Amino acid sequence: MIVLAENGSTDDTVDRFMAAGVRSRRFAVRSDGIGTGKGTNIFAIIDKALELDADRVVLLDADVRSATADWVGLLADAVDTALPAMAVPVYQRNRYEANTTNQLASPLLAALFGTHVEQPIGGEFAVNRAFMEASVEWRRSDSAYLYGIDVWLTGNALRNGHRVAQVPLGRKLHNSPFPKILSLPLQVLDSLLHVAVQVGRPCAVSTEPVPQRTAVDGTAVRQDPAIIASVTRSVRGYLDKNMGAVRELFPTARALPAAPWGLRVATEEWPSLLAEGLAAVAAGCFEPARDHLIGLYVNRVLSFWDEIEGLDEAGVNALLDRQAADTVAQVAARSIDFTGAGLLPAGFHRGHWADIC
């Protein structure tokens, strides 16, 4: 069965889907788009799959233009087991994309759970029935109903020790998420941190060798300069207003040099800042740590783009591997314990970013 999850669209999506000439059974699950998002769709699909006694579910983002027919079989085969299992994609992307993946989700998950997942928020996933049945019991943050859903799935899979298979799919071409570089990472990081505080202590450093990533292809399409300028102005204003509080929670930020876009956050400093963010959450500063880290993250992205000028694909991948490994080491060195983190936010609030994104 093909299931379309529709979330407040206004362009006759459902009618066009139902009229499409396909042999498969099809069904549409619909929800109100106000205050909801991608996660609402995924939860609706899982609910429908359980209702229909589905054996496996393959999830495909609607804006992907490079998907091929074999993606469905490759992902589905990877979760063909009785135990709870999830399949995540491995694909190559434009070096100026996947910023939330490369700078936040992948290194933080490695530090928290000891497993390096190259594309933990890729969107093209598969899960089996045992996984779906288990997922119904997991605590859902409000951000998991938004763009936080992908990291919620992957993070909880790792937290519970379920199998996470990484499936090579080739290249990924889709609509650039960069225009959402403030709102999307905020939701992803919020969801990730809600999962993180449930682990007690981050996993000990894994003794397994770190797989060499293949996340970057030969494509190098820069982002829209007008959007970059707008984002830079917003983040500069945010940091100017909150720099005292940022430096208090993130001591490494005190020594960051100036850059044309704001602050230069090099590969050497970023793992320390990520570890300091987790330590701040463990100390009970969930929302300030999350919000300040987003401001630093945007500066890291712009610094990263500057760093990779002149590097080939292997060089960019090696830099990302080193950054992830250093993040694991930095977190492990701090003996972070989330059991004293205190009360978490009751819902998802944009916090310090409320007036910006």
Describe the structure.
The structure is a single chain. The chain has 357 residues and is an alpha/beta fold. 44% of the residues lie in helices and 11% in strands. The chain has helices spanning 13-19, 38-51, 69-77, 99-113, 129-135, 149-159, 183-196, 225-249, 270-282, 286-307, 313-332; strands spanning 2-7, 26-31, 56-59, 85-92, 125-128, 163-171, 258-259, 262-263. The strands form three sheets. The chain has a four-stranded mixed β-sheet, sandwiched between helices. The protein has a two-stranded parallel sheet with strand order 1-2.
Please state how the strands of the largest beta sheet are arranged side by side: 3-5-4-6
Number of strands: 8
- SSE-based structural type: alpha/beta
What is the mean predicted local confidence, pLDDT?
93
Sheet-strand content, in percent, reads 5-15%
Which labels suit this protein?
alpha/beta; 11 helices; 8 strands; 357 residues; four-stranded mixed sheet
Blueprint (SSEs and pairs):
Blueprint: E1 2-7, H1 13-19, E2 26-31, H2 38-51, E3 56-59, H3 69-77, E4 85-92, H4 99-113, E5 125-128, H5 129-135, H6 149-159, E6 163-171, H7 183-196, H8 225-249, E7 258-259, E8 262-263, H9 270-282, H10 286-307, H11 313-332
